[in-house]
Amino acid sequence: MSIFDIWLGILQGLDVTATVTGYGLLFAVPFALIFGVAQYLAKGAVLFAVTCIIEFWRSSAVIILLFVFYYALPVVGLMLSAVTVSAMVLGLNIGGYASQAVRAGLQSLDRGQKEAGQALGLSRSMILLLIELPQALVAMSPTFVNHFIQLVKATALVSLVTLTDMTFRAKEIAQIEYNPVGIYTSLLLAYFVVCYPIAILGRLLEARISSGRELARGL
Amino acid sequence: MGFDLSFALSTVPTILGAIGTTLLVALISCLGAAGIGFGFEMLRRSGGLSGYAVRFLIDFIRATPVLAWLYFLYFVLPFYGIRLGALTVGILGLSVYFSGYLAEVFKAGIDAIPKGQSEASRAVGLSRIDTIIFIIAPQMLRNIAAPLGNYFVSILKATPYLAVLAVPEMLGQAFDIASDTYRYAEPLTVAGILFLLLALAISQAVKRVETRLLGSNRR
Questions:
Q1: How high is the pLDDT of residue B216?
Q2: 3-state DSSP call for residue B18?
Q3: What does DSSP assign to residue A109?
Q4: Total H helices, total E strands in chain A
Q5: In the predicted model, is pLDDT for residue A212 greater than 80?
Q6: What is the ipTM of this complex?
Q7: How far apart are CA A150 and CA A166, in angstroms?
Q8: What CATH number did the domain enclosing B122 receive?
Q9: pLDDT tens per residue, range A137-179
Q10: Which of A197, B96, B156, B182 is deepest in the core (most CB within 10 A)?
Q11: Domain limits at A46?
């Protein structure tokens, strides 16, 4: 098997990697937004409950969470496909991290922003939607890009719950061909090819945002 | 097949017994990652060809999953005649993976030190190595204490990855029980709960140490 065949074999798993990443985002984005905003606005018992849920998803090890949900949910009668369980666990784990970026972004805004909104007679939800969130999300976008890369990398885990992603394909090829150097170097390179352009994008974003900030200060 | 609580409780001592391995792996990997990361950062600063090579290597490590690194080292090292135990390979894998992140921590820690510090030490006749050891490193350590603590927690949360190499840390022990008894839900849930408690306790401890360290250094 040539190195080219190994590459083709590994890339056959790209669709599963992309699928899990995509479905993962469906969990991660709403979770990060809702819980990040909730942690920013809530007080007392609600804040405690919100914090507990976020901490549950981001404090544990994602590989353990995946196995617990994969093996324990069927026992309590919840039958979900491996893709759904993986997307949920990986998505909510990254969503937990990203929620902290959402909250930090909101908290770091100047108080004058909110006060100006109030002075204009906007309701609290309108201030949040029109003034606070857009600024916070733009300011935190490089962090979100980093979390997205972490999500893509975390999908390597789904090879452990029978899904045929790139890592699974590499291990499959390793069973029929003894070429560890070629196979596992190709696997690392495959992830690099996927993730590195995203990292570059994140750096461009960061440069753009920080230059915009300096401009605003200069004026 | 429901959830057998008494069976679950019977697995607690075995899984709890692996906490020592988990913590030891995390501690040695953190030291290893810090060592490699510091070396990377020094090479990157020295500029030249090795600086660019290291810069690429750091980007490469950050764009690839830890699981792929573990497989890579586990299968590729023996190919070159380097036979290490699974535990050693696991620690090496975590060290390499997190060194890419710790290099960035060191970079930020060093960048925060005023340039006059190294210029002054050069002016009084200290060698380059002495400048690093006696002038830069002590000031850097204070700057990196907080992010280093956070990465220790991250490394702790990555230790269960070693279960895929059959290292008997907490998740590995849970899988041992599972494959002996054909019951997965109970040991994995127990491992999940115990690991969550451990991770929460360690991250609280790290926060406390941080506030004490930084509190005594701040004017």
A1: 58
A2: coil
A3: S
A4: 11, 0
A5: no
A6: 0.90
A7: 16
A8: 1.10.3720.10
A9: 999 999 999 999 999 999 999 999 989 999 999 999 999 989 9
A10: B156
A11: 3-218
Measured in residues, chain A has a length of 219
Q: What is the pLDDT of residue B219?
A: 42
Averaged pLDDT of chain A: 92
Determine, for residues A59 and B188 on separate chains, whether the beta-carbon distance falls below 8 Å. no
Beta-carbon count within 10 A of B219 CB:
2
Please give the tally of structural domains in chain B. Answer: 1
Place of tokens 């990697």: A17
Does residue A131 sit in helix, strand or coil? helix
Task: Determine, for residues A191 and B65 on separate chains, whether the beta-carbon distance falls below 8 Å.
Answer: yes
Q: Which CATH number do you get for residue A99?
A: 1.10.3720.10
Rounded CA separation B195/B64 (Å): 25
B173 part of contact set with chain A, CB < 8 Å: no
- Does residue B64 belong to the interface with chain A, where contact is any CB pair within 8 Å? yes
**In angstroms, how far apart are the furthest CA atoms of chain A?**
70
Q: How far apart are CA A14 and CA A9, in angstroms?
A: 10
- Packed helices B170-181 and B19-46: angle between N→C axes, nearest 10 degrees: 140
Is the pLDDT at B9 greater than 70? The verdict is yes
Question: Among A219, A56, A37, which residue's Cα sits nearest to residue B192?
Answer: A56
State the pLDDT confidence band at A217, using cuts at 50, 70 and 90.
Answer: low
